[in-house]
Amino acid sequence: MVAVKPKKIPLRTCVITREKLPKHELIRVVRDKDGNVAIDHSGKANGRGAYLKKSKEVIERARDKKVLNRHLETTVPDEVFTALLEAVDIDAE
């Protein structure tokens, strides 16, 4: 009998909580080379990315402490945080 290797689950670190979590439990925010900031639903968009845990508290803390601004090296507009909160609400349902 041949032993089957378990599938490797990619882990990423939340920039707020510093927890290492499976990629599907996080939301990726990406800044492209033109400086545009957006939510990366595919997880594969080109550009500098930062991961946040899918939690309202974490997103609020990221907004208050401006952590994404530092990680993405740009100013993150409020619309992105609004979209993040909506994405967390949709996932919670």
What's this entry about, in short?
This is YlxR family protein. This protein is α+β, with helices and mostly antiparallel strands.
DSSP strand count: 5
Radius of gyration: 15 Å
User: Termini distance?
Assistant: 42 Å
Q: Quick one: CATH class?
A: Alpha Beta
Put simply, the count of helices is 3
Plain-language structure description:
- This protein is an alpha+beta fold.
- It has three helices and five strands.
- It has helices at 56-65, 67-72, 78-92, and strands spanning 11-13, 20-22, 26-31, 37-40, 48-53.
- The strands form two sheets. A three-stranded antiparallel β-sheet has the order 4-3-5.
- A hairpin with a 6-residue loop joins strand 1 and strand 2 (20-22).
- The longest helix is centred in the C-terminal third of the chain and has 15 residues, at 78-92.
Keywords:
single chain; 93 residues; alpha+beta; Hypothetical Cytosolic Protein, Chain: A; three-stranded antiparallel sheet; two-stranded antiparallel sheet; 3 helices; YlxR_dom; YlxR; YlxR-like_sf; YlxR family protein
List the helices and strands and how they pair.
Layout lengths: L10 E3 L6 E3 L3 E6 L5 E4 L7 E6 L2 H10 L1 H6 L5 H15 L1
Antiparallel strand pairs: 1-2, 3-4, 3-5
Helix pairs in contact: 1-3
